Amino acid sequence: MKPRLNFFNAAPDLMKEVRELNQAVEESGLERSLLHLIKLRASQINGCSFCVDMHSREARQDGETEQRLYLVAAWKESPLFSGRERAAFAWTEAVTLISSGGVSDELYEKTLEHFSAEELVKLTVAVSMINIWNRLCVSFHAIHPVEKARAA
Question: What is the pTM assigned to this prediction?
Answer without folding.
Answer: 0.93
